[in-house]
Design brief:
This protein is α+β, with helices and mostly antiparallel strands. It is about 70% helix and about 15% strand. The chain has 2 helices and 2 strands; from the N terminus they run H-E-E-H. Helix 1 (about 5-35) runs antiparallel to helix 2. The protein is elongated, with a radius of gyration of 16 Å.
């Protein structure tokens, strides 16, 4: 699959960075969910109220992405 060790290490490093980003997203979303049934999301201009299930779905998607990345390694 890889031509040399450096190519493989670069791939693994890239995967690890992606995994860390998904972990940060999960932590942030779990914190936002604590005790809330709805979450207000602001992008600086607009505020949107979303049900907690939307963040739960994002957590599930991040977990799936982590799982997929680990399987690729």
């Amino acid at each position: 699959m890889f031509e040399n060790d450096e190519e493989e290490m670069n791939f693994i490093k890239s995967q690890d960075e992606g995994i860390q980003e998904h972990i940060r997203n999960i932590e942030m979303n779990l914190e936002a969910l604590k005790g809330n049934t709805t979450i207000t999301i602001s992008d600086g201009k607009n505020k949107t109220v979303v049900p907690a299930i939307v963040l739960a779905d994002e957590i599930a998607q991040d977990a799936k992405a982590i799982s997929d990345a680990i399987l690729l390694q």
